[in-house]
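Hi support team,

I've been running sequence recovery on a batch of backbones for a student project. Most finish fine, but this one hangs at about 90% for roughly twenty minutes before it completes. I'm not sure whether the input is malformed or the queue is just slow. I've pasted the structure tokens below so you can try to reproduce it. Let me know if you need the job ID as well.

Thanks,
M.K.
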């Protein structure tokens, strides 16, 4: 989001270009979008017919709307701030600065979210782009997750429609999500003799989503070896791993199946992780109070 409210940030998504093109024009100008487009067109030698979508930080004026309808006939337009009536710009700018300040106080990132097929919410997955982890039993989708300084967590699942609006391939969005998750991930290793327990934690929550990381087995092998591993997900914020057949693996299973976590997208689960993939071994049955 643009910190200078006097300049209207405009983003053009253009067919054939891998990244959106950014430019700006004076916010109060009736032709702010047209000015921004002139800059992009001159720099990249593209035509209006190639524009797929336009994001204008401020709602385009009536003049700009006519310009866009004529030159970007197939493009969808979105904006963040409504265009005020004449004489109301100072109030609108003050309101926009307040919104921007509130946004800066929270952290926002795209993260993978685990979905159990047995979850009461599983029907919602039909509206989301997702990838199977254990076909028919466990999947991973994406959400925009924010955290305020007070520690509150907000989550907005990315729908198929929103993915289309972003104009990004699903694989690329997952790459972004996995990157955000991995940057905040911490490995805690506890050992007693030959028994080893690895727990994954994350300051911004959702450590269990690390199960979806393509290289998780390789990340764990320096601590647990290359054999099969037992993974416990007692809730979305915890992931515990131990060698299959070990005492810590038995404890993991017991704790997961006795988890008091209130089911949402994820049902507390026990899985086998090998270099070849994942297998769901058990899920907690019934409600946490059952």
């Amino acid at each position: 989001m643009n910190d200078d409210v006097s300049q209207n940030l405009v983003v053009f998504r253009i067919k054939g270009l891998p990244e959106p093109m950014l430019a700006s024009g004076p916010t109060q100008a009736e032709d702010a979008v047209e000015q921004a487009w002139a800059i992009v067109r001159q720099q990249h030698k593209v035509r209006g017919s190639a524009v797929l979508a336009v994001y204008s930080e401020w709602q385009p004026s009536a003049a700009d709307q006519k310009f866009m309808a004529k030159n970007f006939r197939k493009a969808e337009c979105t904006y963040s701030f409504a265009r005020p009536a004449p004489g109301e710009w100072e109030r609108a700018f003050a309101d926009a600065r307040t919104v921007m300040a509130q946004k800066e106080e929270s952290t926002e990132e795209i993260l993978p979210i685990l979905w159990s097929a047995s979850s009461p919410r599983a029907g919602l997955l039909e509206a989301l782009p997702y990838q199977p982890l254990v076909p028919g039993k466990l999947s991973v989708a994406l959400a925009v997750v924010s955290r305020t300084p007070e520690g509150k967590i907000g989550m907005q699942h990315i729908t198929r429609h929103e993915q289309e609006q972003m104009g990004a391939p699903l694989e690329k969005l997952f790459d972004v999500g996995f990157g955000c998750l991995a940057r905040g991930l911490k490995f805690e290793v506890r050992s007693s003799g030959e028994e080893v327990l690895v727990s994954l934690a994350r300051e911004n929550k959702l450590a269990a989503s690390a199960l979806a990381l393509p290289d998780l087995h390789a990340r764990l092998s320096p601590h647990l070896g290359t054999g099969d591993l037992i993974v416990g997900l007692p809730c979305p914020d915890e992931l515990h791993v131990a060698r299959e057949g070990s005492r810590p693996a038995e404890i993991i299973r017991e704790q997961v199946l006795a988890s008091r976590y209130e089911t949402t997208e994820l049902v507390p689960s026990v899985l086998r992780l090998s270099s070849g993939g994942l297998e769901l071994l058990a899920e907690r049955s019934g409600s946490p109070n059952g």
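--
Follow-up from support: It reproduced on our side and the slowdown came from queue contention, not your input. The chain has a mean pLDDT of 88. No action needed from you.
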